[in-house]
From TrEMBL:
Matching CDD domains: AdoMet_MTases
Keyword Methyltransferase among record annotations: yes
Annotated keywords: Methyltransferase, Transferase
Pfam family membership, one: MTS
Keyword Lipoprotein attached: no
Organism: Streptodolium elevatio
Coiled-coil annotated residue ranges, if any: none
Phylogenetic classification of the source organism: Bacteria, Bacillati, Actinomycetota, Actinomycetes, Kitasatosporales
Xref: InterPro entries: DNA_methylase_N6_adenine_CS, N5-glutamine_MTase, SAM-dependent_MTases_sf, Small_mtfrase_dom
Designated name of the protein: Class I SAM-dependent methyltransferase
Protein's GO biological process: methylation
Superkingdom of source: Bacteria
Start and end residues of each Methyltransferase small domain: 194-308
GO molecular function, one term: methyltransferase activity
Length: 370
């Protein structure tokens, strides 16, 4: 584990460094507390200096919000084309994440947080990080994400298509956008009893397929966290006898009558662990699904590609590009179901990408071997 070093009360101190986003440990760390002004914290963080918080926990959150306001005031406003606007927005989000990520807290040997008015974060940190390995510094923004994920995991997310809740783990994309789940619940099933769910995440689509009557569903993911999450949800929902959560990978061995894939919808580099469910650099998962589908389908089987067209409205991928990928893979489109997004951002006129989001359609493409 990497370490960070700082001086406190005339004493040299060290702690382990942990970053889910693989950010390198800061080279310079100073102590900050309730007397630290937002302008000072913002300037130091922009210069690359990390601030290890030693004051009141709620004051740390207020300081972070004040720093965020200063960042947002200086953020660029739009671009010429939708693609330029998107790239400006992503660059601004990366800068925001870097600066705010320099406000740190120290977890003790048991994942405890020794700050005034601090919540008990031990269970949340154990879920996200595993067993503690000594005092560790993490960014406050990451810790708040860990706390939020713990609450999502505890309460779960209602899935009307299942009539039940699924419980996402930290770093696993939550099925809060229910329209894609509804598409899988409504599309006409091909004949046969075996289905693959590629990139299963929480296992929600595998569960929907099992509830619809598929006798055997094999769920895959490249993320160990997602696989653990899916196994837990499969057990909770009572489908352990019909859903097999496989080892890490994309396609499992063998063939299926139905192969379902809901890849990240936008080509781009994710800024955080959870963004891996939204952004896929160079569209690797989309291409891998399409190129590998034909050899994993039983005769007469179908592949279901669940995909938003937001990338098209942002100028990141054209409809012609998508159709060319489908054709090059030896596939044809035998049907498509469309739905409009229902999430709040689609109606948020203040969102920098509102013009594209307002036109977004989510589709389930039914694909077969030509």
């Amino acid at each position: 584990m990497s370490t960070i070093c700082w001086t406190e009360a005339g004493t040299s101190c060290t702690a382990g460094w942990h970053s889910e986003n693989a950010a390198p440990p800061p080279l310079r760390v100073v102590v900050a507390d309730d007397s630290t002004k937002a302008d000072t914290a913002y300037r130091l963080a922009c210069e690359g200096t990390a601030l290890l918080w030693r004051g009141d926990f709620h004051n740390a959150r207020q300081l972070m919000q004040a720093m965020a306001r200063r960042i947002d005031r200086k953020a660029p406003r739009g671009g010429g084309s939708p693609a330029e606007s998107f790239h400006l927005h992503r660059r601004a989000r990366r800068h925001r994440a870097r600066v705010l990520g320099r406000l740190l807290v120290r977890l003790d040997v048991g994942h405890g947080l020794d700050l005034r008015r601090a919540p008990d974060v031990r269970e949340a940190c154990a879920e996200a990080y595993g067993p503690p390995s000594g005092p560790t510094a993490v960014s406050l923004t990451e810790l708040l994400g860990v706390i939020g994920a713990h609450e999502w995991r505890r309460r779960g997310v209602e899935v009307p298509a299942l009539g039940a809740r699924v419980h996402p783990h930290y770093g696993v994309f939550s099925p809060v956008r229910g329209e894609y789940v509804d598409l899988v619940a409504q599309a006409p099933l091909p004949g046969g009893a075996v289905a693959f769910d590629l990139g299963t995440g929480t296992g929600v689509l595998a569960a929907v397929l099992a509830k619809r009557g598929m006798a055997r569903v094999v769920a895959t993911d490249i993320s160990a966290r997602a696989l653990a999450c899916a196994r837990e949800n499969v057990r909770r929902l009572g489908f352990a006898d019909r859903i097999d959560v496989a080892d890490p990978g994309l396609f499992p061995a063998g063939r299926a009558n139905l192969v379902v894939c809901n890849p990240p919808w936008l080509p781009g580099r994710p800024n955080s662990t959870v963004e891996q469910g939204v952004y896929d650099a160079d569209g690797v998962m989309l291409r891998s699904f399409l190129t590998g589908l034909a050899v994993h389908l039983e005769p007469g089987g179908e592949g279901w590609l669940v995909l938003s067209d937001l990338a098209e409205h942002l100028g990141l991928r054209s409809r012609a590009d998508l159709l060319a990928l489908i054709e090059a893979a030896g596939l044809e489109v035998v049907g498509r179901l469309d739905t409009a997004p229902r999430h709040p951002r689609a109606r948020d006129a203040a969102d920098p990408l509102h013009a594209a989001r307002a036109r977004e359609t989510t589709s389930l493409w039914r694909l077969a071997v030509r």
